[in-house]
Amino acid sequence: MECAGNKNSSILVIGCFHGDEPQGKYLIEKYLEQNKDTNLCFIPCLNKHGYEHKIRTNKNGVDLNRNFPTKNWELTEKNEFFGGNEPASEDETKFLVKLIEENRPKMILTLHAPYKVVNYDGPAEVISQKISDIIGYPVEPSIGYPTPGSFGTWAGIERKIPTITLELDEEVNVKELEEPVFKIFEMLEKY
Prior knowledge:
The chain is 32% helix and 15% strand. It has 191 residues and is an alpha/beta fold. It has one domain (4-189): Aminopeptidase (3-Layer(aba) Sandwich). A 7-stranded mixed β-sheet has the order 1-3-2-4-7-5-6. It is globular, with a radius of gyration of 15 Å.
């Protein structure tokens, strides 16, 4: 796993936290095909095993978005939201923690599905509104249910890095998302 694009960028964009949410991988790879000299650091697919098997979790059955070493991490039952036997137990989580600690990005965007909202953690309300203005999804400071051990809590709330979860519409053809998402990426290139 490594960054595509500018490895030293202060803006990190992550796709495919959950393997059954492939839109981010597709959109990032398409954007990179057309923008070789990007200023952004992209991780097209964080969860390769989940993507290959079309499942939410990684190869160990862990929901990566519940595996971060947050104050609210908790051991839960082993279902599709299982956060692992301990925080930061997974290679993908360790990779992101190390990358963020070394590079100290000034902003992070993760691409998820299906809720059609711009959810944010930490000091990200202003940039979230700009993203909302492009894609037409409402801005939501809460996703509406508990997310112990989430990446947003770890990066956005506990580390104060503006962290945005762009929940894409999974009911439209992903090609229809290219124009608005590419405009978001282009805006972030200048951010």
